[in-house]
Design brief:
The protein is of the alpha+beta class. The protein folds into two domains: 120 residues, Immunoglobulin-like; 120 residues, no CATH class. The chain contains ten helices and twelve strands. The strands form three sheets. Strands 1, 2, 4, 6, 7 and 8 form a six-stranded antiparallel sheet that branches. A hairpin with a 2-residue loop joins strand 1 and strand 2. Helix 8 packs antiparallel against helix 9 and helix 9 crosses helix 10. The protein is flat and about 100 Å long.
């Protein structure tokens, strides 16, 4: 009887534990509700047109590449203008751009623009409002031009370290001074002097080797260096093998030339940032600013918008780069041509 009583008590206790465990486990349906939407979006609608702008993720790190998608959803007989390339991106660089083929759903057409972005700094960065103009040419439409504007979007960009940034408060206090024996003190002075002398000899040797290996480039003027880079670009024949890389290198030659002659950090700026900076400078005439804008914008279409230039377009871009360098460096052009 005692043995049977023990078994019954054990089974009863196991049943209590099982019931308690079943009540503490959440169902699968409840777990899906805990997911958060890490996308920030703005959706506006006016008449037959709907525009959606969304950025994923809205809480990004400085090393992330957020995706910006502009979606235009309209009825078939509505004419609209796509937003200009790179409009309203502010403190973001464009790493990639594509336009998928339009979709047709019933009597509506859907057009998308997809940007891959790179933040230039940490903090709260903004995507400015995007404006779309359209004309309602439907049978029941008024035929007039209207516009619709999205809301500004804010993306919170944090550093890679986040909350793990070390704090000075975590450092241990400095230890007190330790006296060295007199003999050890003399040895330390000799060791420090020897290290300083070795570093000085190494620096002089490095400078001498640098001058030996690049005696010509150290004496070249900015316009001579730019022409030399253009010649190397022709020798590489990138226009025939990789036209996108050709335009990257070609604009790089012009940007480096501008940086050497004016001090403007053109090589590190986007086209929009660069044009905004030179707009108020006396270094560039109105004609030079117009030439630069046409040259850089047409190159960006090849680099980021996958536009395929023909042979004439490539030759015109090269001639524009060469003409700009020759015009701004006219005091040295005759010497280089000779």
């Amino acid at each position: 009887m005692r043995f049977i009583r023990t078994i019954l008590i054990t089974l009863f206790a196991a049943g209590l534990l099982t019931g308690c465990r079943d009540k503490s486990v959440p169902s699968d349906g409840g777990s899906s509700d805990s997911k958060t939407d890490n996308v920030v979006r703005s959706r506006v609608e006016r008449g037959p047109l709907r525009v959606t702008v969304e950025v994923d993720p809205k809480n990004a790190r400085l090393s992330d590449e957020p995706t910006l998608v502009v979606t235009i959803d309209s009825e078939q007989d509505v004419e609209f203008n796509r937003p200009p390339f790179g409009e309203a991106l502010g403190d973001f660089l464009i790493r990639d751009f594509r336009e998928p083929l339009p979709e047709i759903s019933g009597n509506r057409q859907i057009v998308r623009q997809v940007y891959t972005l790179e933040p230039t700094r940490a903090g709260k960065l903004s995507i400015a409002p995007i404006t779309i103009t359209f004309r309602d040419t439907r049978a029941e439409g008024d035929g007039k031009v209207h516009s619709v504007e999205t809301e500004a979007l804010t993306i919170d960009v944090s550093t890679v370290l986040g909350d793990d940034v070390p704090s000075l408060a975590d450092l241990r206090p400095a230890s007190g001074p330790v006296e060295l024996p007199e003999s050890a003190s003399h040895a330390m002075w000799w060791l420090a002097g020897g290290c300083a002398a070795a570093l000085a000899v190494a620096a002089l040797a490095w400078l001498w080797l640098r001058r030996q290996h690049s005696p010509v480039e150290l004496q070249l003027s900015p316009i001579e260096m730019a022409y030399l880079e253009l010649e190397r670009l022709i020798e590489q024949n990138l226009a025939a093998t990789d036209v996108k890389l050709f335009y990257v290198e070609l604009t790089g030659v012009v940007r480096r030339y501008i940086e050497r002659t004016t001090g403007v950090r053109a090589a590190e700026q986007t086209t929009e940032e660069f044009l905004r900076e030179i707009s108020g400078r006396a270094d560039f005439s109105v004609l030079e600013r117009d030439r630069l804008q046409q040259f850089l914008v047409s190159a960006d279409l090849v680099k980021f918008a996958a536009q395929q230039p023909n042979k004439q377009d490539i030759e015109e871009s090269f001639d524009r780069a060469k003409a700009f360098i020759g015009t701004t460096g006219s005091d040295q052009t005759e010497e280089v041509a000779a």
